[in-house]
Amino acid sequence: MASTPVYRWRLAPEGLATRRQLRALGLRPGGQDVAAQVERPRRRRGPLIAYLYRVDRAMPVRPMTPGRRAALAAAMTARRTCPACRRDAGYCIPRSLGVCVPCHDNPANDRVAKEACRVR
Asked: Residues 89, 76: contact at Cβ < 8 Å?
């Protein structure tokens, strides 16, 4: 039975990287299994765990296609559009509010805001 090696924080050998480190290099794990993990101890809770992947087996990041770019833009527009007033808020609507801040602060929109929160 093979187990995953565990290293202490900042003591992982060369050639291993986290997903974020791979992304900074323009790479992705590419379907490979986790090669090791790093544990960062904490005082009152369990340790933070980061999974490590082999850099030599990593693949290049897939390029952004026009279709993916359009889908991402549509998703971000939906996150920024207030369901109560249908305006682009200019920021992602907080899920805790369900509507933009002006609509949330306006007491006349309480019914609309509660309805919008129920829909999500």
From this structure: no
